[in-house]
Amino acid sequence: MHSDGVRTIEIDTPSGRFGVWTRTVGDTSGTTILVLHGGPGATHEYLLDLEQPLTEAGFGVVFYDQLGSHFSDQPDDPTLWEIPRFVDEVEQVRTALGLDASTFVLYGQSWGGVLATEYALAHPTALKGLVISNMMSSIPSYNEYAQQVLLPEMDPDALARIKELEAAGDTINAEYEALLAPHYERHVLRRPMAEWPAHVLAGFEHINYDIYVPLQGPSELGASGKLLDWDRSGDLHTIDVPTLVMGAQHDTMDPAHKRWMADQLPQGTYLHCPDGSHLSLVDDHDVYIAGLLDWLRELG
Fold first, then answer.
1. Does the active-site annotation cover 278?
2. What pTM does this model have?
3. 228-274, pLDDT tens digit by residue?
4. What are the helix (H) ranges across the chain?
5. Catalytic position from the list 254, 272, 278, 284
6. 136 and 227 in contact (C-beta within 8 Å)?
7. Number of Cβ atoms within 10 Å of the Cβ of 104
8. Is residue 150 a contact partner of residue 187, using CB atoms and an 8 Å limit?
9. Choice among 65, 73, 88, 251 that is catalytic
């Protein structure tokens, strides 16, 4: 069965019922990948480079914007932005889509990788496979990597000014973005920002900061919000489903840690993108897609 359609799925929350936007493409009669975007509070848009290669290879793909994100309802309710509530949302979306362990692969990139990990721990029997892309299993370890590796690469004066703006809570402005541009072009998407694809820029421009800041914190150089102490490294050995961990040499997330994650997972595989960054889907596209497709085909 080929499906190509936009659908709003109604989900129940402690604050009432809201609609989340989904778009299904490709052949959903077999393995179907539900895509969890990052942010938190970004959109599916920056992950659209998954669509053509996966559907042409015969897989179904469901893009969706999590509650609060651009194409979905955006309730003004801070109590909704908690990991367990998001996990419950994913479960409601899965159920509404009719996906089960015979077909359901959950893909999470960046914050989506946090959410996918949490989902796998809460609902292991629902999954055929799991993909954790560009996300470590520990925010404390990520923050340590940022302090030891990422920050020392930066211009000291620029870094000092970035920290001033962050301390003042004044980070949603052109000056902050300009100061971070060299970091973005080295570790987020390895090309001049003026050359970033329109769909990637849209994913960033549409971030809901009412979600992003409480969870991630105001800084792009580490996490300081509700995610500050998030660490599932000690639980990886309990996720006994086929899992692909995707890392990249120039990522904001430590590739050595992601390789270690794959070793902890009972059915873990690691894919390394030597020329990629946090968006290795875009800047090391061929390696990323080839590895993802190989793993999906082996999954059966």
1. yes
2. 0.96
3. 999 999 999 999 999 999 999 999 999 999 999 999 999 999 999 99
4. 51-56, 83-97, 111-122, 139-145, 156-167, 174-187, 198-205, 209-216, 255-264, 280-283, 285-299
5. 278
6. no
7. 21
8. yes
9. 251
